[in-house]
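Take our chain:
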Amino acid sequence: MLTREEIETAYNAGLEAVIALIQQLLEQNAALIKRVDSLETRLNKDSHNSHKPPSSDGHGKTTRTRSERKKTGRASGGQSGHVGTTLDMAEQPDKVVEHRAEHCQGCGAALGNGASHVAERRQVFDIPPTELEVTEHQAMRSTCEICGCETVGTFPEQVSQTVQYGAGVKGLLVYWNTQQLLPLERSCEVMSDVLGVSLSEGTVVNAVSQCAEQLIPVEAEIKTALIASDVVHFDETGMRVEAKLHWLHTAGTPLLTYYKMHPKRGSKALEAIGILPVFEGLAMHDAYASYWLYDDCWHGLCNAHLLRDLTAIAEETAQSWPGEFKTLLIEVKDEVERRRKLNGKRLDWKQRRDYEGRYAK
């Protein structure tokens, strides 16, 4: 900020000095305005107009992320023609319980176990009482009647310890911990409360580790299939591992998904994963800079992120074309989905020409 003495010095130096001083102040003012605009734009960015995830919006945000899809006018819930999951009676129930009347409602006489027939049927679907089943495996020693040699039978490969939990218990532990995301302690609590099985957190860790080892060949097959796919979607999201920021990378198609945790977000992680660097199909992503480093494949940008970018431009510039562009992108997507439902048909050449023309314009 200029002092009074600096202003008087410029005034006493004449007109040119005053003009130079004013020009300097105008340049500083323009730079400050530009910086304020940049900071305000950054402050106004959240999940509805940027690539930020909803979790980054914080509790102070009052704006909810709105879907770009148009309202269909249909009520929520199951729609007409939707195949439901109504509970139907089983033709062959597992158990039948007969309920006989003890006394005649006419005269009050005892009915006993005389002739009767079914008047009405009702069925209850329920889980039978669950309890741990213990199976003992015994290796038998047999003596040959010819030579007298004794031979001991062998245990199955999966029965490797004197006492151990079976595949059913281990499968549930993996399911609670990795699919339902229960912490180790709560996974143990569920097993104790439901099955009466008291086990340690180390047992859960071992079960998950064994499952991971068995899935190594499956992961390799998924990775190979993704590399050979025509279109693969790539993404990454932050996750905490031992209180440190890591990145969960994904590569997926409608049928296959490959997950990989890595300390890095960019090219080092993509190189370590080894899918995108050798991929030659269409890579769909959110325009994160590292994805563009690979030019052996085609690149396509995620529609959801494009819509957010257009929302941001509309809010910052108040221009009309971003809204028109959003309408076009959503219209094309809806029309493609509609055509696919009609026996898997695609857009005809006239529709494609019209959409491409509007897109270019």
About this structure: The mean pLDDT is 88. The two ends are 48 Å apart (CA to CA). The longest helix spans residues 15-43.
